[in-house]
Model the fold of this input.
Amino acid sequence: AAEKFIESKFEGWTILVAPGAQAFIFGLVSFWIFRQTHDMQWLAQGTASKDLIQKWEETSEWNFFHKRNLLEAEEHFCRNNYDKARLCYNVAISASKEHKFIHDEALACELAGHFSFEMGDMSAALEYFTRSNESYYEWGAIAKATAVFNHAVFTFQNVNAQP
Done:
């Protein structure tokens, strides 16, 4: 729907910001839901969002390269391609930082933290969550930074408390 709106109503890429953000977030949420439910429709929705972001990347690599890589990381995570996922998370983090998208860097670090935790790599998970917290704080999202910090503390306390 957003793609038709852009193609039929406006010219120029400034309008891509809102639909681009919508497709990006929808893709991330779709992959997350797929991992919780294993319902293939969510994997398909996430992949479609990634494909749309990839199409927009052709017009503005600066704005969409890191987003596509984060969506690819999430897709690889869903498909159990863990080495490719790890690589894409790191590319997304580096590109976000290089292009000064501090909020996307924070998000990519947070998702890489969840990935690392699921993979049993507690050291990497702690590093990613810490970097996410710092990036959210730098961006000015103090409540989100605190939420990431509290989640990490709670998560690692529960891991350490298990026999």
